[in-house]
Amino acid sequence: MGDRFEYRNVRVDGDSAPIIQAFSARIPADGLTAMVGASGSGKTTLLRLLNRLDDPDAGEVLFEGRDVRSYDVLELRRRVQYVGQVPVTFPGTVADNVGAETPHLLARVGLGAELAGRDADRLSVGEAQRMCLARALARHPECLLLDEPTSPLDTASKAGVEALVRSLADEGLTVVMVTHDPSQAESADRLLRVGG
Amino acid sequence: MNDLSGRISWADVGLALLLVAVSMVISRMRRTGLERDIAVATFRSFAQLLAIGYVLDFVLGGNSALTPLVLLVMVGTATLTSGGRGKRVPGAYWIAAISVSVAAGGTLGVLLLLGIVPAAPRAAIPLGSMIISNAMNTASLVMSRLRDDLGAHRREVEAHLSLGETSAEASAPWHRRAVRNGMLPIVDQTKVVGLVALPGAMTGMLLAGASATSAIRLQLVVMYMLLGGNAFAALVAGKLTVTRLFTADHQLIRSVRRVDS
Question: Is the Cβ of B248 closer than 8 Å to some Cβ of chain A?
């Protein structure tokens, strides 16, 4: 299997200086890729280029060998799901957030079926982050982009989310995860270092 | 009934300045630091109204062809004011110009087409000025509210976008709120009209000696016109602002999101 994503000589400008400069890297289709680097090195920025929440100011980002800009952006985002650092719940119940396949998806992310009818904004942070993963999986993506998904979580829910991410990668999803956590980086299939 | 319209002399205006002096003394006593602003405001109101008075006398005195020009100057000034206040939105001046023009053109057009008011400068200029100044405030409110809300809720907006929603879908809750916020003042004003304040148009007619019932008929038309005009302005400003705060590829523009790392 070839590369899922490729950065080719990418530059992203900040307010005064470039956030990212002359960055090139490949991300294979299989397994879990951890993106690591000092804070402020542009990891989040690079991740957001993959589902086109942002575009590079120079260079190219490829998805399955084609420039991401050549895809219909809404279709690209459906296939490449992004879950941010802080879980965002939408108004309504968990089922309203996740959609038709709620029971199956809640089980998949390790949430009890009884949560389906709960108001989404009454979930704990850990539960909310799992719900966000379920909501992303409801779109049947091929790739999952995770921006420090465990940073707002306590130790117990952190271990649970880590195991879940691992199993999603093992099931064949391409997972790209920004992390600061050395043990998470170690458990990844490969590292993508950003910055010095 | 007494007609006051021809009775106020320049000497009377001068005497009314006593009330400006009162506000200056109060400002001084309470150290509000507004004396300078009061003086500037007094002078500006004098100069601006004097100028428009001469312009109106000229236009109404047989030069009615100049009416569109007068309205255009008003739209221009409203555009500069509103666009300046919304300047964190790219293209704010264009958004203001289009919103105000649609509001003025739409409502004046309906009033003229239905023959509710005559197609004469005496009607078009004062009514137009009321629509334009209200639409100006509405456009400013909608633009700045939408910009602030999308900035404050950028995580939510991007969560929607990330799930594959369009920028129109992702911004819908805040779009709705901004339009509502822009329309609300005039709706509230319409609710309490006559109970809290006798509005300008009606006051003017009463002072000029018209009967109270004909004064309220005019006032009703004015209120309905302002409701319609503000709705037009809010609708257009909201729609255009959303299109300028996102790219064609459903991305929030960078100045709104300021990514941290």
Answer: no
